[in-house]
Design goal:
heterodimer; A: Alpha-Beta Plaits; about 25% helix; B: about 280 residues; alpha+beta; N-terminal domain of TfIIb; Naphthalene 1,2-dioxygenase Alpha Subunit, Chain A, domain 1; Acylphosphatase (chain A); Acylphosphatase-like_dom (chain A); Acylphosphatase-like_dom_sf (chain A)
């Protein structure tokens, strides 16, 4: 069970699309930090970024909404969220 | 993406009912244009002597600085017998034309901006609804939007839970389908046609197709103008003035699903006139 308490989640967010932009990973880190979420980038290539994120579900929802738009030079096709296994969810 | 993708779109430039041979001097995307009727009474739009494409639909004259690749979007209800068609007129707003559409799509502001008309406290919750980009029509749609409204329409006599559907068929146009109090099973249609005068200035031309046999035309127009004038004060004070396509400054929430879908759709098409591309 990955739900740490009723409102806090630890999830893996998989972002697919034309995400081959050097600006996107730092953008995700900044956006997560603004929301006070703990995050760790687990994978990044031209078509897929995987980030583990921990925090209140409403704020993870907001990160997902923000990432679906992203910076102007990327195009996000889909975002899927799955429970992450173990860990503390990286750094805020 | 191309920077000029919006050039080839249709835009409202005036009311058909106000066409005359003297013409109306206005602007489209920063370029001065003249909207007049020719000797045969047909609409004619020119820019520095160049004749622009024209079509006449939904009570308005439409034109384009470029070469529209498709016909103006369809509103089937415009041909439905029994409806009253209302030219609301024009409201000039010092804001991005994209901001004007985005505001129209936002129901979360109803209780705070249109207090005791389209919303009221404590009924501020936006229930979950469905948003999609319909690939076949290439339009943004939001459906199953439900909200409590003290006076949903001019014809409403009390508060009701209103259901909405929003549709964005063109970058500066939105069509709202709304519960029709006097005729359950039908939808009232309220549109927002926005003429982009400049990137941060627009003329908003609302138009309606309603089932309402009781209200006077003056009352229908007054009701809708009241709503849009309330919106204007909000729109003219939004910062940044252009609509951000990078959400770095404005952090969207679940209630902003339609706005996010609209911005994604703009971004995908390169519809960036009136948009801020990089968060500042």
């Amino acid at each position: 069970m990955t739900r740490q308490n009723q409102d806090h989640l630890f999830e893996r967010m998989t972002i697919r699309g034309a995400v081959d932009s050097a600006s996107f990973v730092p953008w995700i880190r900044r956006h997560a930090a603004k929301l006070g979420l703990r995050q760790e980038i687990r994978h990044a290539d031209a078509g897929r970024i995987e980030v583990e994120v921990a925090g209140p579900v409403e704020l993870i929802d907001m990160l997902e909404m923000g990432c679906s738009l992203g910076p102007i030079d990327v195009w996000v096709e889909t975002i899927t969220r799955t429970p992450a296994a173990g860990g503390t969810g990286g750094q805020p | 993406m191309t920077q000029d993708a919006m050039i080839d779109e249709w835009y409202p430039v005036g009311l058909v009912s106000q066409l005359d041979s003297f013409g109306r001097k206005t602007a489209l995307m920063g370029e001065p244009i003249d909207v007049a009727s020719d000797a045969d009474g047909n609409a004619r739009v020119t820019a520095n002597g160049r004749t622009l494409p024209v079509c006449v639909r939904y009570g308005h004259v439409w034109s384009s600085l470029g070469q529209p690749q498709k016909e103006l979007f369809a509103i089937p209800e415009a041909d439905q017998p029994g409806r009253r068609f209302v030219d609301v007129g024009v409201v000039r707003v010092r804001c991005s034309p994209l901001r004007a559409v985005e505001n129209f799509l936002d129901i979360a502001h109803f209780p705070f901006v249109h207090t005791d008309i389209l919303g009221s406290e404590p009924h501020t919750e936006v229930q979950n609804y469905k948003v999609e980009i319909r690939e076949d029509a290439d339009e943004v749609w939001a459906t199953q939007v439900k909200f409590y409204q003290p006076q949903a329409a001019r014809s409403a006599s009390g508060g009701i839970t209103t259901e909405y559907m929003y549709r964005v068929p063109a970058p500066t146009c939105s069509v709202l389908y709304k519960t029709c109090p006097p005729r359950p099973g039908e939808w009232d249609v309220i549109t927002l046609f926005v003429q982009p005068l400049a990137e941060d200035l627009c003329d908003v031309w609302p138009w309606m197709a309603l089932f309402d046999d009781e209200s006077s035309m003056t009352d229908l127009i007054h009701f809708q103008q009241t709503i849009f004038l309330q919106d204007r004060s909000i729109l003219e004070n939004q910062i940044p003035r252009l609509l951000p396509l990078d959400p770095g400054m404005e952090i969207p929430t679940r209630a902003d699903l339609t706005s996010v879908a609209y911005r994604r759709w703009l971004k995908r098409h390169g519809y960036t006139y009136g948009a801020q591309l990089v968060a500042q």
